[in-house]
Design a protein that fits this description.
The protein has about 240 residues and is an alpha+beta fold. The chain has helices at about 15-35, 45-55, 70-90, 95-110, 115-125, 130-145, 175-180, 185-190, 195-200; strands spanning about 150-155, 165-170, 205, 220. A 4-stranded antiparallel beta sheet has the order 1-2-4-3. Strand 1 (about 150-155) and strand 2 form a beta hairpin. Helix 4 (about 95-110) runs parallel beside helix 8 and helix 7 (about 175-180) runs antiparallel to helix 8 (about 185-190). It is globular, with a radius of gyration of 18 Å.
Length: about 240
């Protein structure tokens, strides 16, 4: 049962100016990939339309606790990708091609961070402090701020052999929101950016199933010293060049 917590109806719209500035800062990564991928389209025009679509989507983004929930930033960032998906699909671009584009955008964005700092962040999550923080976040986000549109997850202590620690997501804000927006086909492509981020961190990440692929959960696992290794490529991407 979800707690009867107040849900603001204008949380994102009152921040529209700030969120649009966030989009504008991210646009440089979008522009580079769009120019390389879509020779027959104008990146600037696509970005203008995507920005407008992102602004139109703001009232629809589910409230999951606002700034108290760090996953709110992920939800907002993924809404930018949802806006891009809608614009590109309207231009006749396939969902698979859009999937390639969003993965490459994330590769470009992550690649701009100082490599040393990224690696230090990857080591931090394996420290006792890092694991306690992650465990606390899962409790707070899934229980104390239990909003219907959010994530629900459980932190798992590892067995020391197959994994050090993990998270099982049994509800996903993106799956729920994207399904509501008629974009369910796109969600599993967006999930692929987790591997981009985790490879950069070098944190020893693996995952074998997701809710977006029709699984019962998203099984995030970490093992120190292990290569980031999904069941790769996912069965639904067999034969693709990802």
């Amino acid at each position: 049962m979800y707690k009867a917590l107040p849900i603001p109806t204008d949380y994102y719209t009152v921040q529209a100016s700030e969120l649009l500035r966030w989009f504008d800062r991210a646009a440089k990564y979008y522009r580079l990939v769009l120019a390389a991928r879509l020779a027959d389209e104008s990146p600037d025009e696509i970005l203008r339309e995507t920005r407008r679509e992102f602004e139109r989507l703001l009232p629809a983004i589910p409230y999951i606790g606002g700034r108290k929930n760090s996953l709110t930033r992920i939800l907002i960032g993924c809404t930018m990708s949802l806006a891009l998906y809608r614009i590109l699909k309207g231009c006749g671009v396939s969902v698979k091609e859009i999937g390639h584009i969003v993965v490459e955008i994330e590769e470009s964005r992550v690649g701009a961070y100082p490599r040393l700092l990224v690696r230090l962040a990857g080591r931090y999550i394996h420290t006792p402090v890092g694991k306690r923080r992650l465990k606390r976040m899962m409790v707070e986000h899934s229980q104390e701020h239990n909003y219907p549109g959010g994530w629900v997850a459980t932190f798992l202590e590892g067995d020391g052999q197959t994994f050090d620690f993990g998270i099982d997501y049994i509800e996903c804000a993106l799956v729920k929101f994207f399904d509501q927006q008629g974009a369910g086909e796109f969600t599993r492509y967006l999930c692929l950016i987790d591997f981009v981020q985790q490879r950069a961190l070098g944190a020893g990440f693996s995952r074998t199933t997701t809710l977006a692929e029709g699984g019962e959960r998203c099984d995030f696992r970490w093992k120190r010293g292990q290569e980031t290794r999904p069941a790769w490529p996912p069965t639904w991407l067999q034969g693709d060049r990802f």
